[in-house]
Amino acid sequence: MLSNSDVAQKLLEIRTLMEMAGDSFYKYMAYEKAAASVENAPPLGDLVTAGEHLKLPGIGKSIGAVVEQLVRTGHCEPLDQLHERFPPSLLEVLGVSGIGTKTAAMLFSDYGIASLADLETAIASGTLAGVPRLGSKTIENWRRGILAYRGRQRRTPLPTALTIASEAMDYVRDGPPLERLLFAGSLRRCEVTVGDIDLVCTSPHAADVIAHFTAWQRAEAVLAEGPTKASIWLPGGLQIDLRVLPDHLYGNLLQHFTGSREHNIKLRELAVRSNLRVSENGILNLESGDVITCTEEAGVYAALGMQYIPPELRSGLDEIDLARAGAIPQLVELTDVRGDFHMHTVWSDGDDTLDAMIAAAAARGYEYHAISDHSQGRLRRFGVGADKLLEQRGLAQELGARHGIFTLCASEVDVLPDGSLDLPDDVLARLDVVVASVHTATRQSREEMTARLVRACENPYVTIVGHPTGRRFDASPGYEFDYDAVFAAAARTGTALEIDGQAARLDLPAPLARKAKTFGVTFALDSDAHRTRDLAAMEYAVGQARRAGLTKDDVLNAQPLEYVRAFVARKREAA
Ligand SMILES: [Zn+2]
Ligand SMILES: [Zn+2]
């Protein structure tokens, strides 16, 4: 069955296509109003069953029938008919800034342009040059608009987006006086990729802040500019939106623009049952007309009768129910992390020396850390074999003592295709921690890969399975295996699963870590740093752990060193 927001989405699609078809303003605006009404209504399924959807504001007999059809079947006649006339792919052309429904309809009827790709081709081939009403400047704007649209589709990895956001915020802070400034949206929720960057700001000088923002030299173009908001895009197409409101609305503003869309829809659906309407401008009591404004985000949740929900949990899953029951977990924080088990030096494929990495780990305030260079399986290119490893051990302990940190001797050993490891047991037994990772033969069948990872978990010397799914944003979706079987094996054998914070990895992905937790798995949050500055990737590992709902108790390296030693020993003794 379609949800309220799905139905609203379809009603808006009808509205757009009707406008494209030249229907009257009043006719298509009725659909827009109906969509807004549906978004704020209690669950439509129940309403339709009781015939009560006809009582919603803006839903008359004919739109009521459309809503009923949509709820029951997912389809409706007006939309089917409009789709016969206009292909659904035409809607993406409307995503290009500067192209409205009239222009899209003209491009389709006169030039057969039915999609964004068609439009790109037409611009590149010069088909549209010389068309009256379309100056060369308009066409150039469209070309840029397509790039921006594609940029939004492409999505930017979290670490890149965070860097850009902090540069933009530094620039905004250098301008007219402001009170508070923060990034919101998917970035604040620690999604692994973001579509665009949302900045929210409070200042009594909104217009000046906006003018300063749009004058940023880094901006390739200004997409929109109004009294309280503006959008720019950077070379490559990443869009940054800035909104400026008075400071007493900071909590409302931040909550609204942090999303997710799904989370906010659920929140609004709940609020409407108490006759409240939630928006960035405050919480409106529909009975009394009073508006509750919140200087802090927690105030919004308190006004709706629930616990504060951390941004990373606002995915629209079960967090609102948990918050109403006062059951939001105390999520793990960066300051809970006492160590990092995964980092490389020039002894294998890292860029920095043993001394530099140990000093940098100590400078982060860690109690302990492990040097885990690649093992001999990678020897031909950069591995550390058994002899060198034992030599490294003595040196690392000495350097650790000098820098005031406990340096554990470890190795990132290769899990070979049959699930065995590429260092012999007598060498593994002399290591403090063993990270076991798959780097080769990654295209094995699902069955082979499952057996391989389960066997790695069953090895008494394996402390942590490194980057368990092998996904890389730049290269690979990861290997195929039976997640449940491996999670069960990890929990049963006392093997930790890694959340690797390396920018290209973020592996385990948060949804899988959330699932692994239900099996009772212990997690290791690691940087997998190959140079000193990348030790900061621990922040991303923590972000993903928080999205997965992990607490300090779920995380091995949030525990004291004695606990880690006991964790390792327990598994070895059990064998
Ligand atoms: Zn690795
Ligand atoms: Zn590694």
Notes on the protein architecture:
The protein folds into 4 domains: 4-154, DNA polymerase beta, N-terminal domain-like (DNA polymerase, domain 1, Orthogonal Bundle), CATH 1.10.150.110; 156-245, 2-Layer Sandwich (Beta Polymerase, domain 2), CATH 3.30.460.10; 250-324, 2-Layer Sandwich (Beta Polymerase, domain 3); 334-574, Metal-dependent hydrolases (TIM Barrel), CATH 3.20.20. It is of the alpha/beta class and 575 residues long. Helix 1 crosses helix 5 and helix 16 crosses helix 17. Helices cover 44% and strands 13% of the residues. The strands form 4 sheets. Strands 11-12-13-14-15-16-17 form a 7-stranded parallel sheet, covered by helices on one side. It binds zinc ion (ZN) (2 copies).
Strand content: 5-15%
Mean pLDDT comes to 93
Assembly level: single chain
How many separate helices?
A: 23
CATH architecture of the largest domain: Alpha-Beta Barrel
How is the main sheet built? 7 strands, parallel
Number of domains: 4
Examine the coordinates and then state which fold CATH places here, giving the name of the CATH topology of the largest domain.
TIM Barrel
